[in-house]
Amino acid sequence: MRDGGLVGQVKRPDLRRADLVWIDDLPDAAWVMDRMLRLVVEANRAEFGFDLTDFGESAQIARYGAERQGHFGWHSDIGKGQWAAKRKLTVVIQLSDPADYEGGTLELQPDSNLYTAPRQRGFATVFPSFVLHRVTPVTAGERFSLTLWAHGPAFR
């Protein structure tokens, strides 16, 4: 794992403290992507109806550890760059048992309300990539998550 930055490899520890590995760098991980792609297609069909064209960006495994108060401040997943500019849907899957860490809550703010994502292991939270969200600081243990982005033409 390497120290996580932002789009374009920008390091901002005040905004994000996490260790990252890209799933394409792991042997025998193709089956994970296959399952995630099916999940995204089903969620998009049922809830969003976005024009999705590809999944060109590797999924990311993030580790947020208490030793550094791992966190990711308020942000959206759309940005500059080849892939970030085309992100339409974000999927975050909780990999850790909630008993293994404190803090590390995924919060979303799609409107004036604040939503807390379920913490149970295996739960997938799917949301438009323009939605503001954050991971609160981990205060004990470590939290692992898997994130994938679906891409398409720019929002109009």
From TrEMBL:
SMART domains for the chain: P4Hc
Please state every residue range assigned to the domain named Fe2OG dioxygenase: 55-152
Cited PROSITE patterns: FE2OG_OXY (PS51471)
InterPro entries in the cross-refs: Oxoglu/Fe-dep_dioxygenase_dom (IPR005123), Pro_4_hyd_alph (IPR006620), Pro_4_hyd_alph_FE2OG_OXY (IPR044862)
Q: Does the keyword Zinc apply?
A: no
Q: Which residues form the signal peptide?
A: none
Task: Identify the cofactor(s).
Answer: L-ascorbate
The GO terms this record gives for MF are: dioxygenase activity; iron ion binding; L-ascorbic acid binding; oxidoreductase activity, acting on paired donors, with incorporation or reduction of molecular oxygen
What keywords sit in the KW lines?
Dioxygenase, Iron, Metal-binding, Oxidoreductase, Vitamin C
* Name of the protein: 2OG-Fe(II) oxygenase
Q: What is the lineage of its organism?
A: Bacteria, Pseudomonadati, Pseudomonadota, Alphaproteobacteria, Rhodobacterales
